[in-house]
């Protein structure tokens, strides 16, 4: 459009002079830049995600958070009855201690505090296992000041989660689990609970880290700088949508108080456990029937792998894996079409798989990828596991095979001397030259070699053959599975 045409339009609108038209142009330009500035500020604020207030979130979920008080009867300590001469000045004191009706001798009630949250309108409540463990009585305090007694539906010590139930006289407000896997480091979160017995307290922060492990096989903790203190245990960690993405469980602190390092068990670990507790009263985890370990780069090199990924089998128990044909020294690289990064990841994947389901397991065995179908069992107790060690092949006598190490067959006398289980077979190291590469690589007197290059061995001759074969193939090392004081471990034997 020509400038003369613009002028005609402005004149029609009542702007007759050039000065009026220039003022209008300046106004339009100013308004344009102001609009752009406001828009950019809005975008920046939205990108930061800084909430103006958490009050609406608190009001929306607060009624579902509960305080938990447990009562445990503590028996009086047994005080040995002493002999005090009559007339002794200590006679009254000892009589007091030895009197079963004395206040010092009567059982007492010990109380503990924790937090929890309602997950259904009919009164199911989630908290930590350690909050209610050993409790004789569990009392729930709701946000409205009412109290109800709770019963334990079930608990799982492995991830420190318990499910409680109260009789719901009315429909209860409840919260739902969110998807913790989509939570990101830097996201805002809010913790609610009963810190130090103060009741219905709120703290906010961000997710500081993901996928933290503390001590358990099934750990997947969210780390947060939201203040978590004693009494917060079992309480929820909310995202900004009011969904529970974690259960507040532990803190890292030199003095017992919050220093901004708190841990919440991820909701995607908790939710399936809660469902099983509700259905069965216990957790039924899938079980492969193996003991596993992680690979390092030296082990990967010895196995001809480019990187130390997967989980290597240390031993095979009676059960699913033995029935399917899995072997010690197999490296599990895929489970049920999921890549296995390390042992911790494998444990969590297997544990989350339905008991009785048949899955495909891909293992690396002697340089080849092999598919094995395994029907998962239910994980037994640790006591049951200890009694289920697979017996290897019997040993055969022969001569030494590793430079710097003296090997021998396993005789009854040697088994007795070194405390070796009769079910264990292989060859025993009777001596190691401390100046040899065998010693430098970690072999010690009394070690029992059970596998060489992922192959179970029953004689010194087999050890010699497998070591020689690895050398002839141009390998720089070979992987040994040994037992030291009954415990399996892998040692990489490097060649000079």
Structure explained in plain terms:
25% of the residues lie in helices and 31% in strands. Residues 42-48 and 389-399 have low confidence and may be disordered. The strands form 5 sheets. The protein has a 6-stranded antiparallel β-barrel with strand order 1-2-3-6-5-4. The longest helix has 31 residues, at 18-48. With 496 residues, the chain is of the alpha+beta class. The protein folds into 4 domains: 3-48; 55-283, Thrombin, subunit H; 286-386, Pdz3 Domain, CATH 2.30.42.10; 405-494, Pdz3 Domain, CATH 2.30.42.10. It has helices spanning 3-12, 18-48, 55-61, 91-98, 129-132, 267-280, 297-302, 320-324, 343-351, 382-386, 412-418, 437-441, 460-472, and strands spanning 65-74, 108-118, 124-127, 137-141, 147-156, 161-166, 188-193, 201-212, 221-224, 236-238, 244-251, 262-266, 286-287, 290-293, 311-316, 331-335, 338-339, 358-365, 368-375, 377-378, 405-408, 427-432, 448-452, 455-456, 477-484, 487-494.
